[in-house]
Amino acid sequence: MSTFISEIYDNFISENRFLYLLQGLGNTLLISLFAVIIGTTIGFLIAVIRASHDKSGSFKVINAICKLYVTIIRGTPTVIQLMIMYYVIFSAVDAKILVAVLAFGFNSAAYVSEIVRSGIMSVDEGQFEAGRSLGLNSKLTMRFVILPQAIKNILPALANEFIVLIKETSVSGYVGIMDLTRGGDVIRSITYDALAPLLAVAFIYLTLVVILSAGVQKLERRLRSNER
Amino acid sequence: MSVNIDNEVLIEVKDLKKAFGKNLVLNGITTSIHKGEVVAIIGPSGCGKSTFLRSLNLLEEPTDGTIFFEGIDITDVKTDINRLRQKIGMVFQQFNLFPHYTILENITLAPIKLGLMTKEQAEKKAKELLIRVGLPDKENAYPQMLSGGQKQRIAIARSLAMNPDVMLFDEPTSALDPEMVKEVLELMRELAKEGMTMVVVTHEMGFAKEVASRVMFIHDGVIKEENTPEEFFENPKDQRLKDFLSKIL
Hints:
The complex is a heterodimer of chains A (about 230) and B (about 250). Chain A has helices at about 1-15, 20-55, 60-75, 80-90, 95-120, 125-135, 140-170, 180-190, 195-225. With about 230 residues, chain A is an all-alpha fold. The longest helix of chain A is centred in the N-terminal third of the chain and has 39 residues, at about 20-55. Chain A is elongated. Chain B is about 35% helix and about 25% strand. In chain B, β4 and β5 form a beta hairpin. In chain B, α3 (about 105-115) crosses α4 (about 120-130) and α4 packs across α5 (about 150-160). In chain B, about 45% of the residues are buried. Classes of the chains: A mainly alpha (about 230), B alpha/beta (about 250).
C-alpha cells in the first residue's frame, strides 16, 4: 500500500508534476475542439458538393478536387500529415497548436465528408423529389429536407469519428506539442516510472471519450423522440 | 360528370421523347392539357406513363421535344423551373412526406421558405387545408403516426398550400391498403369538382370513368388512344387498348 501511495506522490504530487498532465489535457482539448469544428465544416461542404455532383452533375471541377483531397488524406498517415504541415508548409510559423488544429481538422474533414455523404445518400430519393416538386431549389431542399434527416442517420458514425480524432491528437508530441500523451511522457522521463503516468493518461482519454459518447447518445435520443 | 373546360391551354407537349441510355421510354408524345381538365393516364406497367407525368414538372429531363406550361417552355435551360414548379403540384405514390417535420410544418415549409407567405399566413392556410382534407386534429402529429390514406391526404394538402394551377398525381393510391383507397379518391373527386386541373396516372378504372374528363392510353411510349371516358371504355378502337381493357375489367 505504501509503495502505491509513494508512487502516486512521486509521479503526480511531488514538484506539482500533475501540472504536466493538466497542461497536456488542456492542449489536447483545445486541438480536438477546434479540429472538430474545422473538420465538420469542411467535411459538410465537401459532402454537399460531392452529393450534388452525383445527383445533378454540377460542380465537376470542384468535385474532382474534393475527391483527390479525400484520397490523399485518407491514404496517408495522420502523423505524416502533421509533420508535413509543421516542418514544410508552416515551417516559418511558430504556432504549434494552430498548425496541429489545422492538420487534424483537414484530416478529419476527409472522413467527415464521407460519413455525411453516406448520410445524404441514405435519404430516400423521393424526399429530394418532394422538395423540388414544391418549388424549393436544390440548396433549400438540401438544407431543410435532406440534411436534417441525414444528420440523424449519421450521428453514431460522426461520434465515432470525433472519438478517433481525440485519440489521434496523441501524436502531437511529434512536433513538440505538450499534449496529454506528451505530458505523461515527461513525467515518465523524470521519475523513470512507466506504469502510473501511462495509466493516468489512458484513464483521462477514456473519461473524455465516455463523456463525449454520453453526450451524443443524449442528442440522438432527443432527435429520435420527435418521430414517435 | 360534366366539367367546365376552358379553352385555355395550360400544358402543351410537343413530340416529347425520353431515353434512359439506349432504352427509349417516351417515343414522341404530343398532347395538350386545358384548364379544368382531369386527364387520367392508364397503361401497362413500364409503358412510360409515370415518366411522362414526371416530365411535366421536369423531375425527368426530356431527351427531346418541348413542354410549354402557361406559355413558357420549361425545357429551355433559361427557364426558372423552381418558379414554375411552385404552380405545378405533385402527389407521389409513396407520399414522400418529410418525416422529421410535423404535419403542419410539412404543409408550411415551402410557402414559408420560398417567402410566399409569413409563418402566420402559412399556418392559417395549412389549418384550413387540414380541415378540407378531413384531418384537422393532426397538425402536431408526425407522418409516422398516420395511416397511408391519411399520409396521402396530407401530401395533397401540402401541394395545395402552394396554390397550384395544375396537380400531377403519380399513382396516388397504388401504395395504399384497399380500405384507404376510397378516402383519397374521394378527396381527388372533390378537387376535380372544384375545377382543379389534374393529370392522374392511375390504375383505378372507376376513378377514370367517373371523374376524368379525358382518358389517355399510353403504350410503348406513345399515346395510343385518348378520348372521353364514355367513348374510351365503351368503344375502344386501338387493339392494344382492347387487350388491356379486357385483362383488367
